[in-house]
Amino acid sequence: MQMDLRTVAIKPLRQTFDHVARRLGADKPASRYQEGTLDLQMETNFHYRPLWAPEFEIFDKRRTAIVMADWYAFKDPRQFYYGTYTLARAKLQETAEGDFQFVEERGLAELLPDELRQLAMEMLLPLRHVAWGSNMNNCTMSDYGYGTAITQPCLYQAMDQLGIAQYISRLGLLLGEPEDLDAAKAAWLQAPEWQGLRRYVEDTLVLQDWFELFVAQNLVLDGLLYPLVYEHFDRFLACRGGPTLSMLTRFQNEWFAESSRWVDSCIKVAAGESAANRERLEAWCGHWLERAQEALTPLAARVFTDGAGEVMAEILEQFRQRLTKAGVGGGQ
Amino acid sequence: MDMKASKKKLGLKERYAHLTRGLDWETSYQKMDDVFPFDKFEGIKIHDWDKWEDPFRLTMDAYWKYQAEKERKLYAIIDAFQQNNGHLGITDARYVNALKLFITGISPLEYMAHRGFTHVGRHFRGVGPRVACQMQAIDEIRHSQTQIHSMSNYNRHYNGMHDFKNMIEKVWYLSVPRSFFDDAVTAGPFEFMIAIGFSFEYVLTNLLFVPFISGAAFNGDMGATTFGFSAQSDEARHMTLGLECIKFMLEQDPDNLPIVQKWIDKWTWRGVRVLSLVGMMMDYMLPKRVMSWQEAWEIYFEQNGGALFKDLARYGITIPKCVEQVTKDKEHISHQVWSTFYQYGGVAAFHTWMPSDEEMDWLSAKYPNTFDKYYRPRFTYWREQEAQGKRFYNNSLPMLCQTCQIPLVFTEPDDPTKIAYRESDYQGEKYHFCSDGCKEIFDNEPEKYVQAWLPVHQIYQGHCFKPDVDPTAPGFDPLAAVLDWYNLVDGQDNKDFNGSEDQRNFAAWRGMATRND
Amino acid sequence: MSTVFLALQTNDDTRPLIEAILADNPQAVLREEPAMVKIDAEGSLVVRRSSIEAILGRPFDLQELQINLISLSGHVDETDDEFTLSWAH
């Protein structure tokens, strides 16, 4: 029996799942992002209360002060579901792998002036702990958050931050020795210039409102830290020692440009929902922006000495523009 | 300084330790107990989190690389399968009903596993288990999505899958898998790991994915085969995590043993009850069969699970209490579940049917002690009834077990002619159970299980109708109103496979493919 | 002695792996099932990088196993050169 299945023209009974069609407003073909995201999280008829938080349902909108009529109003502009996410990251990691190998094989780290290499390690290696804090915080958001549209990218963000912590560690092993990672941890725990940042990170680790945590971590802290380290400090190092260190931090740089688009879109949606949300976001931004500035200023001073004020002012100015675009007027 | 000379190449273990361990620190601006508020209340004692042995030392860069490779392969096959109308190459459209049960009952659990592992991946104090749990958390969303994407094309052509998300929250039999996972994620983090990481992943999921998915391959479904095996490749990591976790807990403090043993007993039984659905899928829903449920049970539970428990005996762990009963039940369970769904086929979102003569012969060969004696006569009678135009549908509402939420249909372990009933009193109310195992689970934690959203109770209480429905209206048909609330389309999604739209469409489409005009 | 096992998808990538595993583990038993193989072995089973590389003719990272692995049982020990499954008892 000859069977040529390809030539059969069949009219399907429907185009997508009902819960997706209801959201699209019609039964029409849906993307893999949509079918893999929309309404995936359970919303009703939970069987038991969590033993560890009996005042809440398993997934509960009351875990944040932000109020949304529809938690699927959030969309990831990158349209990441697991498949597109891992493919995008595999591409970034392939470049990073190539860069690390290039530096290693050519012995480029040895060509760096000693003083510059020491400064790079001093400023970059403790940041593996900051990334680890962000990994935990984004897990919290994915855990306590509501609706797959926002909890899904939070977990991707958490894994990205684990990757960043590991890339920084790898940079440490390339520029120095395992002992340098220990020294960086000691600095993180004790050196005065790191204490403001460590306090910021630890204070966010116990935040209970997951959307406030989103603001404190993904919007404000990353929003100042990444430009400071991966733009300004990077340029400082490149001017003095060539592009080697930029190659070893390229992942962070490209990643930040990409993930900020998602962060901004979430803020924009939440702020656009209601005046109450906007005011809440502005208050959070104001509070955490002041704290982040305090935490980062000593680090900027360590590198830029007298020029630190100017660098911080420039970063803040850019950040405020970002906020304004996202519909939040905080931190003025 | 000559850097090259001082550098030695780091081995996998050392390198992983430097890259991952040591990322955490003892917080001092906030108390550690506030940062990790949930890892003590269950009474599990951990003295040194650094004793955790990482089973797989995957850094994120390697993770992205290999997982992207898997995804590339998987979606290439899904695309090809869809473009070539691969669904018409399956043995027989009855097979699709197994997928309906899969997408409504299993894929949403993968999602719950994703959220559950995110929770424990945040809240364990040690870096090692935290990272391993986070990787599992992201793998689990992969599983739910690859399953949805693989079955998306089946949904376009067959009934019963169209509103799976709505159904898992409402439909009576889907509360069985749903409540299983709700139970696990509402437990503390260590119990969750024993429930899902150990009992479910290590002891039980092989039964679902290995023989069942191999069966999908046998039935021509390369789409399901690929997502199944591709998911299993992550499962190898997950199983190892589950095993590492239990060893870690047992090695940390002897006081942990009785707690862990109680959880193993509880969750093995909970898992066995949920898997009775898989037993039915293997014995009745795969038109071409690879092995019987009993055979799969013997290989993957008795043989492999046996080796595992022998290994854990050095810590004082004993084989789960339920094994004696399960060993008796394995010859009955799939037949009893299929009988139940056949009778309640009017309120299920997949089709049921009576096996053919040839299939009954296969069942008697595989189940020589039980099939002909207890089940063939009943099935033959139902077949005769159907031939006379009197296909049997049970329109009553069954009583459900308060713990596993399966209707009380299973028989006494030592008397296959007698339905097992157990009951407990709690705060002046009577609660009913299908087994000693389920009663004991309830008795240990009644304050949890009284909360259960039991579908049949909810129907009686009038919570399972659409808001605009008036149950006092003349001629009100409660059953139809419930189906409407489920969004289960009567005459399309439910009832017998014979005469179904699926059956007609599949025959017509295959006809188009085999004719030469 | 208890049995450990490794299950792999059957495809072009795994053929050399299966060949290497069977050569390195004379006690191993191969079971072929639709779209997969299951390799059972008494006590322990070792996968050697060098054996796979000899057959493949290219460098092989043992973590590549992840791509086609379906299931396993036993304690895992993984180094750069060997991937071992075993039961202690």
Task: Chart the SSEs and their pairings.
The complex is a heterotrimer of chains A (332), B (517) and C (89).
Chain A: H1 18-24, H2 32-35, H3 82-105, H4 108-111, H5 114-124, H6 127-144, H7 148-175, H8 178-190, H9 192-205, H10 210-241, H11 244-248, H12 250-273, H13 275-304, H14 308-325
Chain B: H1 3-6, H2 12-20, H3 32-35, H4 60-83, H5 96-105, H6 107-123, H7 127-157, H8 164-170, H9 175-186, H10 189-218, H11 222-252, H12 256-285, H13 293-312, H14 323-329, H15 333-343, H16 357-366, H17 371-387, E1 411-412, E2 415-419, E3 422-426, E4 429-433, H18 436-444, H19 446-449, H20 455-460, H21 478-486, H22 501-514
Antiparallel strand pairs in B: 1-2, 3-4
Chain C: E1 3-9, H1 15-24, E2 29-33, E3 36-42, E4 44-48, H2 49-56, E5 69-73, E6 75-78, E7 82-86
Antiparallel strand pairs in C: 1-3, 1-5, 2-3, 4-7, 6-7
Reading the helices and strands of chain B in chain order gives: HHHHHHHHHHHHHHHHHEEEEHHHHH
For the sheet with most strands of chain A, the description reads: none
Number of distinct helices of chain A: 14
Radius of gyration of chain B: 24 Å
The portion of residues forming beta strands of chain B comes to under 5%
* Total count of strands of chain A: 0
Q: What does the average pLDDT of chain B come to?
A: 93
Radius of gyration of chain A: 23 Å
Q: In CATH terms, what is the fold-level topology of chain A?
A: Ribonucleotide Reductase, subunit A
Helical percentage of chain A:
55-70%
Number of domains of chain B: 1
Low-confidence stretches of chain A: none
Percentage of residues in helical conformation of chain B: 55-70%
Q: Largest interface, per-chain counts?
A: A-B, 91 and 103 residues
Q: Give the full name of the CATH homologous superfamily of chain B.
A: Ribonucleotide Reductase, subunit A
- Annotated CATH topology of chain B: Ribonucleotide Reductase, subunit A
Count of distinct structural domains of chain A = 1
